[in-house]
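Re-running the complex after MR caught last week's input typo. The corrected sequence lines follow. Everything else is unchanged.
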Amino acid sequence: MIHPVILAGGSGTRLWPVSRKSYPKQFSALVGGGTLFQEAVKRVTGPGFAAPIVVTSNDFRFIVQDQLASIGIDDAQVIVEPMPRNTGPAILAAAHAVDADKDPGAQVLVCPSDHLMGDNAAFLHSVGAASSAADRGRLVVFGVKPDRIETGYGYLEPAVSYSGASDGARPLARYIEKPPRDIAEKLVDGGKHLWSAGIFLFRVVDLIDAFEGLAPELNACVSRAVNGAVSDLGFSRLNPDAFAQAQDISIDYAIMERADNLSVVQLTSSWSNLGAWDAVWRESDKDVQGVALHGNARAYDCENTLLRSGSDEIQVIGMGLKGVAVVAMRDAVLVTAMDRSQGVGGAVEDLIGDGVKQATEFPRRHRPWGWYETVSLGGRFQVKRIMVRPGAKLSLQSHFHRAEHWVVVQGSASVTVGEEVQLLTENESVYVPLGTTHRLENPGRVELHLIEVQTGSYLGEDDIVRYEDLYAREDVS
Amino acid sequence: MIHPVILAGGSGTRLWPVSRKSYPKQFSALVGGGTLFQEAVKRVTGPGFAAPIVVTSNDFRFIVQDQLASIGIDDAQVIVEPMPRNTGPAILAAAHAVDADKDPGAQVLVCPSDHLMGDNAAFLHSVGAASSAADRGRLVVFGVKPDRIETGYGYLEPAVSYSGASDGARPLARYIEKPPRDIAEKLVDGGKHLWSAGIFLFRVVDLIDAFEGLAPELNACVSRAVNGAVSDLGFSRLNPDAFAQAQDISIDYAIMERADNLSVVQLTSSWSNLGAWDAVWRESDKDVQGVALHGNARAYDCENTLLRSGSDEIQVIGMGLKGVAVVAMRDAVLVTAMDRSQGVGGAVEDLIGDGVKQATEFPRRHRPWGWYETVSLGGRFQVKRIMVRPGAKLSLQSHFHRAEHWVVVQGSASVTVGEEVQLLTENESVYVPLGTTHRLENPGRVELHLIEVQTGSYLGEDDIVRYEDLYAREDVS
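Corrected-run output:
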């Protein structure tokens, strides 16, 4: 059996404003279909595959749960990293989480969750070739034929060159991580080297052996973190003390540059890591002028341009643009020359440095119980739209500085105010006076939507006293 | 005395999305300071000027009232045109509204409300020169020295050329309305011709004489419209039957191309009619790279670019742009090559043709009693933020398809629901069941802000039965 491991803990800024720290690009639909994460999971669901293992961070665990549920995946194992430690420990933890005693030949297929795969059948064909090599004890890395110079990728040198439509695994002669431009140019021109797609396949036993041989300390820490994991609301939380001691290192540096049983398989599907907006434009459907429209957008006399509206409520118009990407969201608009889009991350770093909330947060904040967004904000009031999932429950809480009006607009709410518990349905409301303990719960089988009108002298999220919380939170989230 | 006449009835689309049919550019602050309309009024307030006369359309009367109040102008006469009839009838109506029996030498200074004046002192100096000429029976038009070829303006040929810093009035030899490009080029190259700024100064008696001589029918209709005007909530509403019969004609065609007592005064202030986004960029403060930032916007390696955020809540970033204008609002984003910005009107026409609401309307809708905006919209609910001015009152109304919850977040409300009248203050709420007659009023001295949560199967603005209305409205507004 092949156990798919989906890496979903990363967060990049180069696709800002769609990708932000609180909700990174893998959880967005960037080029048609579902979100990148959902597409990555669906790609490895089916005959020959065990239930997926998702490795993610504490911040994204409920997004992962939510996005899995909405594509009908209910058997995934979600491993929560207590802190980020790069791909080496993440992949090793997933390997340790597979019960190799039961299935000594168990294989692991590691897939990033933020990449685009053009042809799933071709991908599965490559997985087959890699699986055969892994059966022979090889650690397989998937390679992509370069179509341009890129300095941000690792380059793979097969011992025997791929030519034409040939496939199958080849021994890996050399791994060159992120070469400088002149070297990258030579590698691409030579026609022999492949980009590393960050996709790996190996037997569990072989990977653990490799780590034991090359990084025994790391293997010991991660093994303890997995053995000491606790199950919590369906998540497997790695032991934080053990995981904290694991070295922060990518699998590329830990294994791919050093092991002697590496092989490469050329991916025959088209592939993109959607590293920046120019890549999103390249992978989008375009008209003959090279114009890609996402959502509610119109182009007049544009060329090689991407126009993206993040909502039906935003009308985007581009006029006379050449080689420009426009990404409009309710709270942030990016307009960049296509060939400068790699630099967006730097601009976002500036915003983070200045404490600009749009740099890292979305108007809609995801919480264990659902989400909320501020829809109107005045001097002494704030209006929020709140969604509570079926069965979910907010903490029992009170506020020092604000009173709240709740109006249920969809579904049913069980509301506790002081000692009183009442059931509210659509079009009913309740008032929560300042200082009174209260709790909100969705006892129903459909989403609960309500409008909360807060009034008071201070409306910050940190004006909260929490008495009981289903989700074991210590912060204000 | 000089009676300033401010023309504020027009509505253009070339500055979309800031300028829309429901709230055109003169009511927005485009380049620093107050709105263009407010700046136009303030420019002609002070010694030597009588109270301003504002000519506007029915749709904008409350915006005019509101913007005048907020700059402390309480003595303006606001003339409401029942239908648009171009500048000829509008200016003539204002002239008839001045009591020339009391002041036979009364002069009228006609100013568009959507232009930018760089130097108010220089403008007033030119007004002085024009006023002297008007005292001698001349109809004076203000001219601007061209600094580029423009085919959208009228060109003035003074009998004697202006040269250097010379000023004073000159007889007008010829008026050339919107010449083709080759002619415009010759006129600009010749160095003698001036653009018409659409600003005029004349004695009331002379203008009425001119219309009586050149367009006696028109003068008769407009005279009847003014004599038959009714006063309504502080507005002077021209008689609609009489005004409807007036010819739709600009003052340029009616008088400026045909009268024989015309003079020109060269405006020594810099001036712009802000005809499109390239003009707004030209008139904005710019850094050495030619980058103009309005509001919450940042530029990285941009040149000759305008970045405008319509709200503190929208973060705009421009990167590597050259000669581009970015205008971001909550519901619409325009990105245009600067040299294509004249074409924005055409794109907006397309949107209008397709019934796109952002083409003509803003999220915030202005009403006689204040404004409202939809802040959240779901399948069966809508949340509005509503502001009611002190003393204002919504109509007594009911709805067939929706119930409403009102929560007062600022100020006080007198609320009628069915037979009951109650006073609500901040943090109090009331429920209006479906079908029940209700009315909302602000009895206080500060703005009333409330949040309205509507629930129901149909939430359109046209689900309203109106029983009594202070503002004599027949539509659903």
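None of the earlier attempt is carried over here. Chain A touches chain B through 60 residues (CB under 8 Å). Chain A has three domains: 2-272, 277-353, 364-468.
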